[in-house]
Amino acid sequence: MPFSKETSSNPVTTTKAGERQWCDVGIFKNNTALVSQFYLLPKGKQSISKIGNADVPDYSLLKKQDLVPGTGYRFRVAAINGCGIGPFSKISEFKTCIPGFPGAPSAVRISKNVEGIHLSWEPPTSPSGNILEYSAYLAIRTAQIQDNPSQLVFMRIYCGLKTSCIVTTGQLANAHIDYTSRPAIVFRISAKNEKGYGPATQVRWLQGNNKKTPLN
Q1: Could you read off the pLDDT of 22-39 as tens digits, one per residue?
Q2: Which CATH number fits the domain that encloses residue 131?
Q3: Residues 123 and 199 in one domain
Q4: Strand residues in the chain grouped as ranges (E)
């Protein structure tokens, strides 16, 4: 499957200022991949994915670029069969770790209970030492968000060594409902080691259309 990431446009190409380009990560025969590099676009090209009637790219002719620590990247994935390439998935965003800091927690799960919801996660796959604590945050309603909906404000709702916590109905009553796509409550979870906190995992808990009753 072709696996591509989005990078800032290169000034030597023909793209307009501010446009983004998709660079190939590779073609894989399984559904997992460890991404540490991507292929640089040839001069004047906006994409190098050639599947179906066209030839598969000769990656041996392309230069590689390492991922930069502490940098955000966008990824998308598509499947290939005998008829060619299918549509790309929704874009996912990830941030690479800074050396020495822990990675982001993974496999976040949300389930309802009598107190509110149960939030759980798995430790970072690259802790870079001992995890000292986790922090979980909830995006809350503020006047600032009303003026600028894309600028979320987070309140810490948990700090401790456990990889789970209870978010009470009282805390959820103050939650901001994000409408950038489907209505959702937004959480962030990050891990801390001896050097400090690493990047956070952000998860959206999808809601119904009623703003006043997010738990329904």
Answers
A1: 888 988 888 888 888 999
A2: 2.60.40.10
A3: yes
A4: 2-8, 20-27, 37-39, 64-66, 72-77, 80-81, 84-85, 92-95, 106-113, 116-122, 133-139, 154-160, 164-168, 177-178, 184-193, 196-197, 201-206
